[in-house]
Design brief:
single chain; about 220 residues; alpha/beta; seven-stranded mixed sheet; 6 helices; 7 strands; about 30% helix
Length: about 220
């Protein structure tokens, strides 16, 4: 059998802020379906902190995987495995450049939030933070995620609407419970009637997290 080519390998990674080899912390930003690295980097305008390197990878074709994040995993391959490899590779790049993992933040919106949270869950450890705007762990209904590993108090923020058309509230709650089982310090905020977007309260909380990461 021919091994599928990883669809996201070699895609551009955009960067803003302090160069990685001079940074105190690194934030890896994963964009949503139909968006781009350039679009998710606009968050830096409201999340910019001195001494932080912001890294945003581009998904091939604008999507990390083709179907819903709650579709059977095999239907979303090789996209999911390739996307996880991209995120984990950027974590490795940050560490190699001198940024310890406890100062690396994984952040995403929508499909990117599903990717960021799943990348953390698949590679647990002490991160600066995990931030999922309108997303949750990848997998169909009934998924039993491995609880092996310890987040050692990593702050995890999950923000989502109670009526999001793409992200069921139940999956956000399952994701929160999974991270808590693995030793993370979880903050979950369910916003009544919020559209599929990022709001000021989420940005404000994220800025508090980033300030704590830099000061640590």
């Amino acid at each position: 059998m021919t091994t599928p080519v990883p669809p996201h390998a070699g895609q551009p990674v955009l960067q803003r802020g302090t160069p990685l080899d001079q940074a105190k912390a690194a934030v890896i930003l994963a964009h949503g379906r139909g968006a781009s690295a350039a679009s998710i980097l606009t968050l830096v305008d409201v999340l910019e902190h001195p001494g932080v390197c912001y890294l945003a990878p581009d998904a091939n074709g604008g999507a990390w995987y083709p179907y819903s994040f709650m579709a059977p995993i095999e239907r979303n391959e090789p996209g999911i495995t390739s996307a996880l490899s991209v995120v984990h590779g950027l974590v490795d790049d940050a560490i190699a450049a001198g940024v310890p993992q406890e100062r690396v933040v994984l952040l995403g919106f929508s499909q990117g939030a599903c990717l960021a949270s799943t990348a953390a869950q698949r590679r647990p450890g002490r991160y600066g933070a995990v931030v999922a705007y309108s997303g949750g762990l990848v997998g169909p209904d009934g998924t039993q995620w491995s609880a092996d590993g310890d987040f050692a108090g990593t702050p995890v923020f999950l923000g989502c609407s109670d009526v999001d058309a793409h992200i069921p509230e139940s999956r956000v709650r399952e994701t929160a419970a999974q991270f808590e089982r693995m030793g993370a310090a979880v903050t979950m905020r369910i916003y009544p009637g919020m559209p599929h977007t990022v709001i000021e309260d989420e940005i404000s909380f994220t800025n508090e997290l980033l300030s704590a990461v830099i000061a640590a």
